[in-house]
Amino acid sequence: MAEAGGGPTARRIVLGSQLRRLRERAEVSRVDAGYHIRGSESKISRMELGRVGLKERDIVDLLTLYGVVDPTEREQFLDLVRRASEPGWWHRYSDLMPAWFQDFVGLEEAAARIQTFELQFVPGLLQTEDYARAVVSQGRPDLADAEAERRVALRMSRQKVLHSLTAPKLWAVVDESVLHRPIGGRAVLAAQVDHLLEMTRLPNVTLQVVPFALSGYAAEGSFSILRFTEAELPDLVYIEHLVGAVYLDRRDEVERYSRAVDRLTVDAETPSRTREFLVKLRAEI
Questions:
Q1: Residue 6: predicted pLDDT
Q2: How do 169-175 and 205-210 pair as beta strands?
Q3: Is the pTM of this model over 0.90?
């Protein structure tokens, strides 16, 4: 049984993929599998896609149906199910987070590489606390309430992934307008530029700025691509909008956004010239 790492969200997806392979090997239909656990074809589909939690009782019944009888193999699988059911560190913020964003935080933690393009804000993983506070308070940090402060704390907690032992490679491309937009005021923007200069000294963080002259050609909006080392986890494109988010995992869709990233990295200043740009910008703020 393959190990599933990278946090509960990733484990759930990997385990779902393994369940699908076991079912197909046993030549059992989703309809029959659903009936066996007193559920539906739709439930089996959601389990195999990793979109719902896995109940140990259901897994025991499915393993039996799929002919997995070896006690050691069954226990290994059930142990992974238990681990996939453990709440992530973000569980304490679940009242602030819609389900679609909880999935993103879990997958972000499991990613080996994150490629992100931003048109409006500094990427969340690179924001300072004061910049994040200005964003979540819609420009009124002086009126930030307890909920807003928890949202800021959530964003700061997400950033710890960049300093972990298994830190992903973050490649961020931002439109030049982002760094001229005085989110939080001049002092906050100046500190944010200082922070970007500090973060780009990390070996796993790369930043490029698309100059005004080439802005708007390669992509119409912000997006992120999450890439994983686990074969069962497909690369994902994440696009957030005002009331939700879209995940794209079809190969042609991911390839289209990958080409956009390639164009952005060509249009943007090189990482070294981006640092020079930030130094100059900081002197002008």
A1: 57
A2: parallel
A3: no
Give the CATH H-level superfamily of domain 8-84.
Answer: lambda repressor-like DNA-binding domains (1.10.260.40)
Domain ranges (residues) in the chain? 8-84, 98-284
Q: Count of CB atoms within 10 A of residue 200's CB?
A: 19
Q: How far is CA 114 from CA 169, 172, 261, 264, in A?
A: 6, 8, 11, 15
Neighbour-count burial of 187, counting CB atoms closer than 10 A to its CB (0-12 exposed, 13-18 middle, 19+ buried): exposed
Q: Give the CATH fold of the 98-284 domain.
A: Endonuclease; Chain A (3.30.870)
CA 211 to chain centre: 26
pLDDT at 2 over 80: no
116 DSSP β-pair partners: 172, 224
DSSP string over 155-210: HHHHGGGGGSTTPPEEEEEEEGGGGTS-TT-HHHHHHHHHHHHHHTTSTTEEEEEE
